[in-house]
Design a protein that fits this description.
By secondary structure, the protein is mostly beta strands. It has two helices and 19 strands. The strands form two sheets. A 16-stranded antiparallel β-barrel has the order 1-2-3-4-5-6-7-9-10-11-12-15-16-17-18-19. It has a three-stranded antiparallel β-sheet with strand order 8-13-14, with no helix packed on it. It starts with a helix and ends with a strand.
Length: 374
């Protein structure tokens, strides 16, 4: 305990103008959510209503700057960590987080409005959480994020049951994340009912080659054991808010410097899949928030989220995803009604992202998600 803290009770007792002591108490918030989901797809006959998620949230902070946050999720077929970090607020402008924390890259907190997110989520650049240290500076209109991540949230690329989309260790693509630097800058300009955020992000990392995966020695058994590779990604984004409208635009380029082929494996939600090792990604989203007074419904936020992954090379093809829908707020219930249309897109009939799977047709699915948040 510091000298000033030891001295403060004595000062409070002897100062004549101090009528009562001000007690600073810790704050602990425990909550969570339960969600059910209905999905219909035009490319199979497996439409059903099912339990989707139970999650537990813990948030804590003290009066002297310490804070912590964690969220754990239970799905039907897996249970995973979402985030778990502790931190310290140095002052009003500066803070640091240590643990499994969100990677500061691109539009934050999300590059989409829908339950389904955008293509950036499925290639690991949206709502991604890794293990490391994250420093944030935010004052007036400027926000700066600097972070270093030692590895993904589990430190094990062969674990496919995870929430964030991370590099996967497979026989054909024997790599895992091993060290990553992130820097993000954003500036906000506001005037009356109009505001805009302009920002840029860079990410540099390394992938370790895993010498043996289920007894196989890499790609066709010929990849050298020392074949670690580097990765680089950059993005610029612009978000405009005017009255109840919001526009999000983002351009992103990523490059996994693979020495063999032009694909790399990612995984999440139990399964590995392939994406193009290099691509340009464009995001364009538009939403409108509508306050209503219809029974328990207080707000409806309707949107159209568009994203496309542009690639070139043998065995590759562009991917497109468009989500049109509305998010409905009714008390502690928050629901999504989404119509997802995709071409060559993972989770919408495609085998991966940016991968030519000989299927050039459009696929669609209806998704209804109802959640109770407590």
């Amino acid at each position: 305990m510091s000298f000033l803290k030891k001295l403060s009770p004595l000062l409070l007792a002897i100062l004549p103008f101090q009528s009562q002591a001000v007690e600073v108490t810790d704050e602990l918030d425990i909550g969570g959510a339960v969600r059910v989901n209905y999905g219909w797809k035009d490319y199979d006959n497996n439409a059903k209503l099912e339990f989707e998620l139970f999650r537990a949230d813990v948030n804590y902070k003290t009066g002297d700057g310490l804070f912590a946050s964690a969220q754990y999720r239970w799905y039907q077929d897996m249970d995973v960590i979402h985030h778990a970090y502790m931190g310290y607020q140095f002052n009003e402008a500066q803070s640091v987080q240590v643990g499994v924390t969100q990677v500061p890259f691109g539009l934050l907190p999300y590059a989409a409005h829908s339950f389904w997110f955008g293509a950036t989520y499925y290639i690991g650049f949206e709502d991604d959480y890794d293990a490391g240290i994250h420093y944030q500076y935010q004052r007036d209109n400027l926000r700066v994020d600097l972070a270093y991540f030692a590895n993904d949230e589990y430190g094990k690329g062969s674990r496919f049951d995870r929430y964030s989309f991370d590099v996967a260790t497979t026989e054909q693509s024997p790599y895992q994340e091993s060290g990553q630097l992130n820097a993000r800058v954003e500036y906000e300009i506001s005037q009356n009912s109009f505001s805009q955020k302009i920002g840029s992000s860079i990410q540099y990392g390394q992938l370790d080659y895993v010498t043996s995966v289920n007894g196989a020695e890499g790609i066709d058994g010929n990849t050298p054991n020392t074949d670690d590779i580097s990765t680089f990604s950059g993005a610029v984004h612009w978000q405009v808010d005017w009255l109840t409208w919001q526009l999000q635009l983002q351009y992103l380029h990523y490059n996994y410097d693979v020495k063999y082929g032009n694909r790399i494996a990612l995984s999440a939600f139990l399964y590995p899949f392939e994406i193009a090792s290099q691509a340009d990604v464009v995001t364009a989203n538009l939403s409108k928030s509508i306050d209503v007074n219809f029974g328990p419904i207080s707000n409806i936020n309707c949107y159209n989220d568009y994203s496309t992954v542009l690639v070139s090379g043998s065995g590759l093809a562009d991917s497109i995803q468009n989500v049109t829908g509305c998010a409905i707020t009714a008390g502690k219930f928050y629901s999504y009604l989404d119509w997802i249309v995709g071409k060559n897109m993972y989770f919408v009939g495609g085998d991966g992202v940016g991968i030519d799977n000989d299927d050039t047709s459009w696929h669609s699915r209806l998704n209804i998600n109802v959640g109770f948040y407590f």
